[in-house]
Amino acid sequence: MKTEHEDLSPDAERFGRIIEALDRRPVRLPARMRAAVMARIRAERSSAWVRTWTWLAEPRLSPLAAGVALAAGIVALLLFRPQVQTGSRELAGAGSVTVPVRLVFLAPQAARVAVTGDFVRWDPTGIPLVGPHQNGVWSVELQLSPGLHHYIFIVDGTEWRPDPNAASQVDDGFGQKNTVLLVPVQKVS
Amino acid sequence: MSDGPTDAEIIAKVLGGDTDLFGVLVERYSDEFARYAKYMTGSEDDAADAIQESLVRAYRSLRRCQDRMNFKGWLFRIVSNQCKTHLTRRRRRSTEPLSDEAISVPSPADPVGDAETADVRRKVHQALQQLPTEQREVLVLKYVEGLSLPEMAEILSAGVSALKMRLLRARRELLSKLEGVAL
After folding, report:
1. Low-confidence winner among A13-27, A121-135, A172-186, B67-81 (lowest mean pLDDT)
2. ipTM for the whole complex
3. What are phi and psi of A160, to 5 degrees?
4. Domains within chain A, CATH numbers bracketed
5. Who contacts A142 (Cβ-Cβ below 8 Å, separation ≥6)?
6. Best of A27, A34, A172 to disrupt the B interface by mutation (most B CBs within 10 Å)?
7. How deeply is B38 buried, as exposed, middle or buried, from its count of CB atoms within 10 A (0-12, 13-18, 19+)?
């Protein structure tokens, strides 16, 4: 490296002082970033199964066509290997339709509460909840695509907490839980 | 490489269906590239975003990692591209130059530096952020991450001679940006 400085002479000494001023301290990213990566990966993996199941279960075909589709589905399942999955988290056929979902969270002591999840790409800022209401409850209404979603509440910007009211939670791989929410396809009357 | 399964062993198991094992790679490399990403994007928050997106993209493309023994180098290229994408998007959103707050500067509580040193560091970092991305990248890899030219050539897919020239131009440009600044 020293020989490379020689061609900059007489600026070599000055450049050396510049280099000394660079900050080389390690940067430790917040654990929630790593948790967010795993949550996104698990959500994609889970949604692949949900899409497959929904496609098979959706009663949109004639009996004959359904039989053919079921056979094709069985073949697809036999060929399917649980490897790296890609694609949308939305259910097949859902298109751009969204479903209103109301989330509530009890935190009377909190100054602010937000929710983050796969639907905002695990943005650490999240979507703010409104509150607290008189009973200490915070709430927000989201428009979510049908399918499987993972989310978590952020209390006062730092504390990540799963939804205690949710029916299902999954390990985020870093000692915490993410909440799992299955948004059904809304029936059109 | 630390104790435990190698990257190649983990990749084979992840591709075999044990998705959760990807968490080992996430844990192993998140911070490894964080300092580089922070220098490239200008802030720790942006670095975290870039690293997060890179790791998810790496997972999605894991089958395409041909040299599994060099997962680190493959992942670095994704991180490098993601940082550049991040910068491009930010430039599209705003033509404003980076504010002082967005520029990575050492903490004022730095025990080894006094106010004067902190001021010099701030100016050096500001000048670094004003360099073209490719010039900033070679300076960071060489003088912050401590990589050799052959190592840089491998991960940047560039020739050593071309990198020497890029490094030389980057150094001159940095010196020019800091002309008149007492160091």
Report:
1. A172-186
2. 0.81
3. -95, 120
4. 10-58 (no CATH), 84-183 (2.60.40.10)
5. A100, A101, A102, A103, A115, A119, A127
6. A27
7. buried
Of A8, A23, A84, the CB nearest to B104: A23
- Of residues A24, A169, A114, the one with CA closest to residue B141: A24
For every residue of B91-144, DSSP letters joined together read HHH--SPPPGGGS----TT-TT--HHHHHHHHHHHHHHHHS-HHHHHHHIIIII
Number of neighbours of residue A161 by Cβ within 10 angstroms: 16
The DSSP bridge partners found for residue A178 are: A170
Q: Are B17 and A81 in contact (CB < 8 Å)?
A: yes
Which distant-in-sequence residues (6+ apart) come within 8 Å of A17 by Cβ? B183
- Which of A20-34, A66-80, A165-179 ranks highest by mean pLDDT? A20-34
* Best CA proximity match to A90, nearest among A54, A56, A47, A55: A47
Of all residues in chain A, the one with the smallest CA distance to B39 is: A23
Instruction: Examine the pLDDT at A55 and tell me if it is beyond 90.
Output: no
Task: Please judge whether B56 and A38 are an interchain contact, meaning their C-beta atoms are less than 8 angstroms apart.
Answer: no
Q: Do B48 and A17 touch (CB under 8 A)?
A: no
Hey, what are A66's tokens? 């359904």
B60: chain A residues, CB-CB within 8 Å = 44, 84-86
Q: Which of B106, B120, A104, B169 is nearest to A115 (CA)?
A: A104
Q: A166: phi > 0 → left, psi -120 to 50 → alpha, else beta; which? A: beta
Give the C-alpha separation, B71 to B63, whole Å. 11
pTM for the structure as a whole: 0.60
Establish if B117 touches chain A: CB-CB under 8 angstroms: yes
Distances (CA, A) of A142 to A63, A102, A120, B116: 37, 6, 11, 50
